[in-house]
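Teaching assistant here, posting this on the class forum so everyone can see the example we discussed in section. The complex has two components, and the goal was to see what a joint structure prediction looks like when all of them are supplied at once.
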Amino acid sequence: MFALLQKSVEVGQWLAQDPVSSAETGLSPHRVIHRQAKTCVRYFPPAPGVPPRHPLFVSMPLINTWTVFDLRPGRSVVEKLTAAGIPLYLMDWGRPGPEDAAVRFGDIVDDILPRAMRRSARHARAEGTLSAGTAMDALGYCVGGTVLAVTLARHGALARRMALLAAPIDFHASQRLATWASAATFPVDAIVDGFGNYPKSFMKDSFKLLKPETNTAKYKGLFDRFEDLSFRALWAAMERWNEDSVDFPGETYREYIHRCYFDNAPVEGGWVINGTPVDLGAATMPAAAFGAMKDHICPPEAAFGLARAWGGPVETFELQAGHVGVCLGGSFPRALLAWLDQPLPAEA
Amino acid sequence: MASADPTGDFQQFTDEMYSMWEKSMTTWWDQVLDSPEFLAASGKGLSAMAGARRKYEAGVDEQLTRMHLPTRSDLTRLARIATLLEERVLKMEDTVLEVKDLLEARDTRISALEKEVLQARIEATEARVELRETLAGLQGQLAALAAPAPRTRRTRSAKNTDSAS
């Protein structure tokens, strides 16, 4: 019992040193190749000495920072993909301010994201990793995947195939999140009218409340594995990322909630952006939906909705992890690389 | 039978206690968080917060305006204008890059065409040289064929001489 008390004191002392604030994330070498307002494209070159593969564009979620893909050395999707020779272009949505509240969903899917992809392709051609007349491969995570799917359904020439990781498409299969974000009780219009952007504090608190037991379980996990120094570092990095939410641009959020959570428009249809209907069924490129089987934010049923909605061939993959855990292990990068190695239908 | 390690027993005891507590709390949270009453109440709470925020913002803006100071809305508007201007610049840059791509594609086509023309000229020149050589050969052969003719004339003139004599 004394040993347990002593360990409790050690854990307390460690937490009192505030390891979360000093935890470093996003350490993989990269440079910014394009900027628009708060957004930017970060280029991660392939590891030296490895033959370069086809470039990959990644659309990250709009609700938090990109560093979840590069939390710690050895626990980084970016590191694993670049080590395999992939030149990686990562869309960082930045930290929206009050002036970004007017940015609409249509601005993102018809202007900001297509431009970022075109500029990335241009850069890849200049680097010699992409031949003329060829498009990149694309990956979207979480909301970034939903946005990517809508974009590529409208601008099919931007990518030659699309992979989505824990990205909701069938929003009415989102379990508790779908229950909360119902038209009857969720006052999205009042919030956007009052706050401008959807505040990051609301976002953070609602995710904590989505599965409240995780808030104590994470401390239990720390206590159980406190002797493992690498786990401690990962825990601190994870906490830092978890607490580092960003505001969601107000008008984009309004349309996202109305069309996706209220109407389930990606599956049901009836969504018109900038005068053109959103029709995922019109897409022809091959796609893959990676679902995290322990995901409570985007349950696998919500992610696998892509198979029903997408016009092109869709493969589904089940990963034994949670919504964030998929970014920490090696199973997702391995599965993605294997999928990317498959020849395209035209090449087969 | 008592365990040899009482600390291990206590650890197991706390783990089990935690597990039971977590299960009971999860059940309770599930009941609360999915209940229509909770959703209705949180929705009303969020609406009220948003309304209060809106009024507060409007009030602060009004006070600042009275003091002839720029408001948050003014600064937001300026930042928005800067963002829109940047967007226009980027659109112009897009056009410039498209034109550059077209020009590069045209240059590539022109240089390919120039190569083809040059190749054709080289081939034509080579053909002319070959033709000239063939012609020269033919001329030589013709000259060779034409060479015995003077001997015939000489015989004929001899005959003439004979007849004259």
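For the discussion questions: Residues 145 and 167 of chain A are 5 Å apart (CA to CA). Chain A has one domain: 2-341. Think about how each of these relates to the inputs above.
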